[in-house]
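Bug #77: duplicate submission created two jobs. Keeping one. Sequence:
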Amino acid sequence: MGMCVDPGVFRWCQALSRSRSYATKTTPKTSPRQALASPGRCCSARANDRNTDASRSAITSGTHSKVKTVSNYTSSSSTNDAGHVHEDNSLLTGQYSARVRRRTATDSNGGRTTTSDKSLNRLISFLLLALCFTLGCCTINPPQDAVHITAILGESVVFNCHVDFPGEHPVPYVLQWEKKVSEKGQEIPIFIWYESYPTHSGEGYEGRVSRVPPNSTFGAASLNLTDIRESDQGWYECKVVFLNRPPKQHKNGTWFHLDVHAPPRFSVTPEDIIYVNLGDSIILNCQADGTPTPEILWYKDANPVDPSSTVGIFNDGTELRISTIRHEDIGDYTCIARNGEGQVSHTARVIIAGGAVIMVPPTNQTKLEGEKVQFTCEAKAMPGNVTVRWFREGSPVREVAALETRVTIRKDGSLIINPVSADDSGQYTCEVSNGIGEPQSASAYLNIEYPAKVTFTPTIQYLPFRLAGVVQCYIKANPPLQYVTWTKDKRLLEPYQTKDIVIMNNGSLLFTRVNQNHQGRYTCTPYNAQGTQGSSGHMEVLVRKPPAFTVEPDPLYQRKVGESVEMHCDAQEAEGTSKPSIQWQRRDGQPLQKNRVRINSGNITIENLRRSDFGYYQCVASNEVATIVSATQLVIEGTQPHAPYNLSGSATEFSVTLSWMPGYSGGPDYKQDYTIWYREAGVSEWSTIPVTPSGSTQVTINRLSPGTTYEFQVIGKNALGDGMMSKVITIRTLDAQKAKKPSTTTAAPNDKEFKHAPEDLGPKPGQPRNVTVVEIPNGFLISWQVPLERAHLVQFYTIKYRTDAQWKTLNRGQIRPEETSYLVKNLVGGRTYYFRVLANSLKSYETSEEIKFPVPARVKHKAITAGVVGGILFFIVAIILSICAVKICNKRKRRKQEKEIIRLQNSTW
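Kept job's structure:
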C-alpha cells in the first residue's frame, strides 16, 4: 500500500474536501474531509491494469502541430466462464450491481439504513477513497508502449484519452491528469475534473489545460495543453476513476510522453567585430539553446573551419580557439546552430586593428610675421582610416575666422598657415582617431615674432591740471618691448632728464603733476629685438582742469538693519570740458543689489539694509580729463558679528597659538565673544573651544598631537547670535623630539609637501607598493614591491626622505629596477623619518605612499656607549704602552750603568 506523502497532492485532497457540495453529502460516520486527510487510506495500483482500445492515439491540435511517433498499446482483457471476453470495468460494475441487489433484498424495517441511503454513503466514501487513491498512489513506472507525442514550442497538443464505462453505461467519474516530475516517479496533478465541481489546474498550467469539448472526435478524458513550454516535456498519465466500484478494481487510464521541440536560439555569441594584433590568441564562444540540442558548426569566409596546429574547435563545438593570430586568420567567422526545427547563424569579423597612434607629433615653432608655417602630425592605425583634426586654443582651426582663408590641412595630416600674422600665436593641437579607442592628441606652440608697432593712436588726449595724468601709447611687440622714444612738438623728449615725467613699462608717459607746459603734440616709437614698424600718429595733448565735487558723501553712515540710507554726491566740470558722469560702486568690488538700490542725479539710496551692506562705498565722477573718487563707510548696526580676519598661528609639539583681527561687532552696544573651531585634517567632525577671557583675540589650544596637521577657524558671537566664520587656516604641530623653536604659519609648509610628477612629462610607472623599514644589525633596510601596473616602464628607483624639513634624496646612485631594497646605516636615533620610494621612467616618475619610521632612541645610546667604551679601552692601552716604555727605558739605563762600572773596574786594574 502506498502512502500520501506528496504535500502538493495532499493540498489537492484538502482543496476538494473543502467543497460545499462534498459537505452536504457526508455521513456522520466518516466525513469527506476526514477521508481526504487520512494518508493511510491511499493505496497503490499498477498502471498496466488499465485496458484501452488498441486504436486509441494522441493527436496534436493546431495547424503546425506534428506527431513524430505514435505507439499504441492494448490492455489485457479477462475471459469469463462462458468464454466471453469482458472488459474489467464491465465485470467490476456487474459485480458491484449484484452486491447492491442482494443488500436491497435483505433490507429490513428495523430502523436500519435503507438501501438507497447506504448506497449514497458508500458512493461518497468510495469517491473520497478513489480520489485519495488517485492522488497519493506510490510511484508508477510508465510502460514502454506508451503514446509518444512531439510538439513544437509555443504550439498546442491534445492528449487523446478515452473513458471505458462499465457495461458501456455512463456512470459518474473523476478525471485526473498527472505529470511525472522526477526519476523517482513523483507525480503532480496538473488537471482534476469532476462534473459540477470547480476544475483545478496545477501550478504553471493555469489557463493552459482544459478538457476537449464533449462533441469532439477525441475521447471524453482527453486534455488540451496550449502554449507549450520546454518545461512541459515529460511523462503524463490520464487517470479515470469511477465512483461506483471499489478502489481495488482496475481504472481507466493512458500514459503519454511529450517531447517539446524548439528551434535553436543563441545564448552566447562573439562580438560582431574583434580587433586583434598579430600573435594574439582569441576564443570565439558560440552557444545555443533548443530541442533537440542544436549542433554547432563553424565557417570562415563561407568555408568550413579547417582545424590546424593553431586553430581548434572545442567543448562540443561551442568554442573556436586561435592560439596565434596570423594574417591568414583574419576574416569573417560564422557560427551556425541547427537542429531538426531550424537553424540560426551569427558572424564575427576578426581584423588586425588598433587605435591611431601619433608617430611624428608637431613641434614648437617660431616664425616671423608674413612667413609660412607647417605643423606635422603623422599617425598610424589599423585600419588606416585615420582622421586628423586641428585646433587652435581649443577651437577647430576652420572655425577661427581670422584663419579661415589662410589655413590648409593636407592629406598627410599636416597643418599649413600661409602667411602667418601676429595674432596667430598660440597653441595648436592635432587630434587623430580611426574610430577605435580614445583619440590621441599632441600640441605645439606657434610663436610669431614681429617688430614693435603702435596698434592705436588717440588723436586727442587730456591731462588733468595739477593732478597725475598719462599719455597712452598702445603698443604690441614680440619679442617684448625694449624701449620707446617720444617726441613733443617734433623735438625728441628726454623723460629721464625731465622732472615730473616717467616712461612706464608699457611705454606710456606718466606725468606725476601736470602743468600747462606739458601741453603739446606728441608721438611715440616702440622698439624690440626685431626693430620697429614706425612711429605713432600725432597725439594732441591738452591740459584741462579736472572735474570737482560740489557735494560729497559723509565720511560715515550708521544705520540699523531694515532701515534705509541715502548718500549724496555731485560734481561739476571745468570750463571747456564735458559734464562728468557720476557712478557708485563698492570698494571691495562686490556688485550693488539693484532691487534695493536707487541712484538719482548722483545720489544713492539703499533700502531694507542688511548685514551684507556693511562696507566702503565710492562716488566716482569722470569725464574726458580725469576721474575723481570720494569714499564713505556704511556701518550696519544691530547685526551678528562680521567674520574675523587675518587669522594666523604658531605651533609647538602639543599646542597651537592663534591670533586674529576682530570683525565688526554689530554695533557699539554689542560685545563680541569668540569660539575656536578646529579638527585634525581629514576628520569630518569639528571640536570647539570658547575663547577666554571674553573679547580676547588670542588663544592657545593645548593637548594636540605632535607632527599632526590641524585646521582652524574663528567665529564671533554677540547678543544677536553667531556671526560669520573666518577663513580656514592649516597648521602642523612640531614633530616629537624636535627643537622647541615655534613655527609661525597660516598653512602647512610647502617644503614638506611632496611634489608629484606633472602629467605632461610622459608615461610613468605604477606606484611602488608595501614600503617597509626594518632595523637589522648593520643598519636599516628599506624594502618595497614592484608596481602592479606598468612595471616595465621602471628605469631605476629613488628613495626620498625628510625629517621636518624639505625632501632629500637618500641613495647616492641609481637603484636598479630589479632591486627592491636599500640599506642605510646613518639614521639618527630619536628622530622620526618619512620615506617615499620613487619608480622612475625615462621622463617621469610615480611615488609610493609616504611611510613614517621613528628611529629608536637607543640607536643614539649605542653610539654613545660605543664611544665611551672605545675611550676607556684607548686609555687602558695607553697606560700599558707607557708602562712598557718606562720598563724598557729603565732596562736600557741599567745596562748602560753596568757597562760603565765594568769599564771603570777595568781601567783601575
